[in-house]
Write a structure and sequence with these properties.
alpha/beta; 6 helices; globular
Length: about 180
């Protein structure tokens, strides 16, 4: 793939993320307590769902379960993003819940590690906020490079939960095999 095509895909994804962040600037409480970097990560997580395919028998096509293990400001910001998403003409309805309280997760986001085994994430795509978070079965990890938020995909972990990331999304990621 040419550098021009990669740049076009990156620009398209960044525009979507920027639009989501701008749309939620009015959400005062969560806005004041969360950094721009973490807002960007929340927007990326929501966009990951759009560019990934879950198995038909997972139920993700009807009601997608997004589980979050984080501080309250991030959790509330993610809820606001999802509420806005669900108000639009999107095919999939997303439900946000706390990781420890949900019976099932399709995607689980971790701000910090949990050492105990969680049955609700055994078939989930696990996303961690940074390379410092050592969560078992992490498939997507955020990191910062040259003051920019980046992410890496562990293809083997995605394969274990039968989830496929689109080629457009993988072009933007650092790949771990």
């Amino acid at each position: 793939m040419s550098d021009l095509m990669k740049e076009k895909v990156a620009v398209k994804l960044c525009k979507c993320i920027l639009l989501l962040c701008v749309l939620f600037a009015q959400w005062g409480h969560a806005e004041e307590e969360i950094t721009k970097e973490r807002k960007l990560k929340a927007a990326y997580v929501l966009n990951f769902i759009k560019y990934m395919s879950w198995p038909v028998d997972s139920g993700a096509q009807n009601e997608f379960r997004l589980c979050v293990h984080s501080d309250e400001p991030f959790y509330h910001f993610m809820q606001a993003l999802v509420t806005r998403h669900n108000q639009g003409a999107n095919k999939v309805r997303i439900v946000v819940g706390h990781t420890l309280q949900e019976p099932l997760c399709h995607l689980a986001y971790f701000q910090s590690s949990i050492e105990q085994s969680l049955i609700q994430i055994r078939r989930a795509v696990v996303v961690v906020e940074s390379l410092d978070v050592k969560q078992v079965h992490a498939a997507i990890r955020f990191y910062t490079q040259a003051q920019k938020v980046r992410f890496e995909f562990d293809i083997a972990q995605l394969a274990k939960v039968d989830v496929i990331a689109s080629s457009e999304l993988l072009k933007l990621a650092r790949i771990i095999r």
